Amino acid sequence: MRWSFKLHGCAAAALSVAALVLAALTWLPGALPLFEPVWPMVAVFCLALLLLLAAVVRHFAAGADRSAMWLAFRCLPGRVQAGLGFLALAGAVVVGLDAAGDRRLQDAEVREGRYVAYDTSVTTDRAVELTRDEYLALLPSSRRWVFAIAGLMAAGAAAGVLTVGELRRADSASLTRVP
Question: For labelling, which of 1, 77, 82, 91 has a CA lying 20 to 30 Å from the CA of 99?
Answer without folding.
Answer: 82
